[in-house]
């Protein structure tokens, strides 16, 4: 039996859908904080269980009978480590045969502040002795395209990445990879650096949006502090704005670039190209 934590989140739902393509619903556990948000999954036969990272007493029952578990990292901006530790402890007690974790690209060496808790979580997993696979996900292309409406309105994307290149991929690509490692054998003990096949700079992103939209859109590179201020001015919490601005600075140093091709090999197809994602975003 497979279990996916955070199963009602954007990534979690896609992992569940990918698993359903090759596995019966009664073999899949959607481990969620709020079961009311997963009624649609239950109606399709997926087993829905409460699993709240911040309430460890829910985790043991959620993992009963589970053989392979995917821990999707908590969406909390900080303080994720105790939550992750609780899931690792519960998985150890449950005796899962494979523990998969969604980490961050090059988490062991990345200068990004976002990588710190991922690195610490990886260390906890190793120390636990669990048979584990680490999925170091690169940047999601959707992260950039969230700013598309504002970029079209103002004629510019803003950031602090300079000419840094993003080997990003679609959330769907990462979801298929996670489902693949759960549903197939031979992944324990491995760490996958998962990234898109084709990298791009933010200036190239702006150029592609210009080409497809017919509107002039440029990339305006800012200092990290100025970009943080733009993000807070747009309504983001200051701590999240700081982490995202820091991630752009890390990207300028190559932290979000990878040309190893592991993601495409794992999912058995080329990763989703930027051009098609821009086209889809413009349609919607």
UniProtKB/TrEMBL annotation:
Species this chain originates from: Rhizobium miluonense
Chain coiled-coil ranges: none
Keyword Oxidoreductase: yes
Domain of life (superkingdom): Bacteria
Alphabetical list of InterPro entries matching this protein: NAD(P)-bd_dom, NAD(P)-bd_dom_sf, NmrA-type_oxidoreductase
GO molecular function ontology, one term from the record: NAD(P)H dehydrogenase (quinone) activity
Domain NAD(P)-binding residues, every copy: 6-184
Designated name of the protein: NAD(P)H dehydrogenase (Quinone)
